[in-house]
Amino acid sequence: VDIAGVDLDVHLPHIKDYWCKLLLGEQGYQRHTMNIHRALHTRRPLQTEDFERWLAFFTATVDEDYAGERSERAKRVAASIAANMEKALSAA
Question: Mean pLDDT for each 10-residue chunk of the chain (92 residues)?
């Protein structure tokens, strides 16, 4: 939060919109996720541990509050996003 300069009151609705788009097909999210994370990566390079930590938090949150096919899909999508983002940023 400090490095990214994120205001969670602003950021959390974006995150909700992003996941609603990915998982439910809603069209509320119109930002370019990779560009946002590239900018963060220039401030402080994101490492494998960052992606692993994010995925662990995501998975734990889903497991705590949800179960079933949709939650399993959400975790698969999250794992794919983390892997793809890590690969793209490490190549930059």
Answer: 79 92 92 88 92 96 96 97 94 74
